[in-house]
Amino acid sequence: MKCLFGIIFLISVNASAQINVGPRFSGMASTGVSLSDVWSVHENQAGIAAVMRASFAVAFQKPFAGYDLSTQAAAMILPVSNNVFALSIQQYGNGTYKHQKTGLSYARSFGDQLFAAITFNHHMLRIDGYGSSQTYSVEAGAQYKVGRSISLGVHVATPGIRGSDRDLDLPVETRVQLGASCRISEKLILAMSVDKAFHKHTDVRTGLEYRAIEMLALRGGLSANPFRQFAGLGVNYKKLNMDISVSSQPIVGYSPQISLSYEL
To answer: CATH number for the domain including 105?
Structure first.
């Protein structure tokens, strides 16, 4: 049994940088650090500063085929003048293993070019028969628009206060992301990012989004370390958006994800 939980825990740590970023960004190889979307609450909170309407989104992901694991996520965004507040909740695991992260974010725009944000997270880990533990973390991010077509982004996440139960140490790492995106045309966006989690290899990623027609977007991407492929699509109808993505993992296969978001 301890071996089983060890495998699950190892998978969750290795996947923590890839899951829960929303299917739009996931379909673009998680290159959303310089982009704006409701799911910026999980990728780079500075992106929500450009969200102009109150929004609500939910997502579901089956991270690994053949494993009894899933991820559920929800996000609520409330713009107030130049300030944007957000609440995000995500839960990963199954009936006996659960890792939950709850975040409260504040973002602000400084003119039309600079956006910044900070997030305070509470993490909780529970394993039946082993007890539970909790800890806190802080995230901060910024985005800068260069003209009308280029955007730069930076995001840093770092652990805060550790939980008291050292037997259930939580998978919270210091992580730095740098990224840039370019709107090549009204239909095509190219995004790139460099992702570095401490004690892990640096990952370089590239993603594309092509808006085939007004209500349909096609997405794809690649990551270098490890080599992974990503694909997805988005459909928007008035204020309702549906996004679907699938990503590969060299060891455990493919992970599909779907989300619905609505602008009030």
So the answer is: 2.40.160.40
